[in-house]
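[recover] target loaded
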């Protein structure tokens, strides 16, 4: 048995060795499941949201989260209690209290607002909902509402889509810039290497947060949400490629005199083919690991800029935009559920970091 396993290792490809090693890293595998869950939420944000994220109503502003009761009379019948608003006799503010006399049953695959699933299929089905529209008598606010009475759960689903896609697109742009410029720098050397390395040093010497803030603040206020979205993605990407470029340059310097690279040149391969067909795939696992570790930085960058009011702006919805209402300590003290959008930020960043660590370890399949 041991001999068969050794023989399997000897004939395995690099990707197989990487996968076998990665499966042994339980925390990384669990993190991969969490990351996959986040991106499933990105694809099905409309399906998971049970209310229009932009629909507001002053009469239900700052409504606390409703508790879900899963069993009714010993049977699985999830429901929530109705909510009634009353005036606090001391502060004269409107407060909400559960009404145990009213049970609002929850329905799976319920009808709700119309949307296009995956941007193509028109439908009104949602994962969870109530019979009929959300009104004063039938309410479901699993995570409460914000100041304007908008459902926080639905807004969180849409915010997850925006924040994670910005991170994904930003990393994609950084990956292309890092591999291309780092590869050219390490393969050709000379004046090209000098120019690219001096550019990297200049970019890395500038404090990151002030530079982000300056670039984001320079965006015209009259730009549409889509224009700001792509501009923020480009801004974050312009500073995220430098570290990967240096890693790629170091690997190219070490490989450009290897036998397989020299052989590719001798048989007449073009320089671009030598770089992207023979050299880059040989350390693709390292690039994937570096990319996974770069994603949390992208997510935090967008969240921080939007939180400071320099990134995405309402009516756009992202994790940073949702956390803007938590800037006021008094508001947080009275309505602590406004801090809930910070939870997916923490979970996503930790999951990406653990996943990146696991991929980085697995990328060296010949190590201990």
């Amino acid at each position: 048995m041991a001999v068969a396993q050794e023989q399997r290792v000897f004939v395995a490809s690099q990707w197989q060795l990487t996968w076998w090693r990665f499966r042994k890293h339980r925390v990384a595998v669990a993190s991969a499941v969490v990351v996959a869950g986040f991106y499933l939420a990105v694809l099905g944000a409309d399906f998971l949201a049970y209310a229009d994220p932009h629909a507001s109503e002053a009469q239900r502003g700052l409504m606390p989260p409703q508790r879900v009761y899963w069993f009714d009379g010993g049977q699985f019948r999830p429901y929530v209690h109705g909510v009634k608003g009353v005036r606090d006799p001391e502060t004269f503010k409107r407060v909400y209290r559960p009404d145990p006399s009213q049970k609002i049953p929850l329905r799976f695959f319920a009808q709700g607002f119309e949307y296009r699933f995956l941007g193509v299929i028109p439908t009104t089905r949602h994962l969870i909902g109530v019979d009929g529209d959300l009104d004063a008598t039938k309410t479901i606010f699993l995570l409460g509402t914000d100041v304007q009475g908008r459902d926080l759960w639905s807004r969180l689903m849409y915010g997850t889509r925006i924040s994670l896609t910005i991170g994904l697109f930003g990393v994609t742009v950084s990956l292309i810039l890092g591999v291309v410029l780092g590869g050219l720098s390490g393969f050709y050397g000379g004046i090209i290497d000098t120019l690219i390395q001096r550019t990297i040093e200049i970019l890395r010497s500038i404090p990151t947060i002030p530079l982000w803030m300056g670039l984001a603040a320079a965006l015209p206020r009259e730009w549409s949400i889509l224009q700001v979205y792509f501009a923020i993605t480009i801004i974050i990407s312009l500073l995220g490629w430098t570290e990967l470029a240096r890693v790629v340059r170091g690997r190219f310097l070490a490989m450009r005199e290897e036998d397989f690279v020299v052989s590719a040149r001798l048989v007449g391969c073009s320089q671009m083919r030598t770089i992207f067909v023979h050299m880059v795939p040989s350390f693709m696992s390292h690039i994937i690991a570096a990319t996974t570790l770069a994603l949390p930085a992208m997510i935090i960058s967008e969240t921080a800029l939007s939180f400071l009011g320099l990134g995405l702006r309402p009516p756009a919805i992202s994790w940073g935009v949702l956390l803007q209402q938590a800037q006021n300590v008094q508001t947080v003290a009275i309505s602590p559920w406004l801090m809930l959008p910070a939870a997916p930020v923490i979970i996503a960043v930790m999951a990406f970091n653990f996943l990146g660590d696991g991929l980085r370890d697995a990328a060296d399949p010949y190590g201990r």
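[recover] notes: The CA atoms of residues 159 and 205 lie 32 Å apart.
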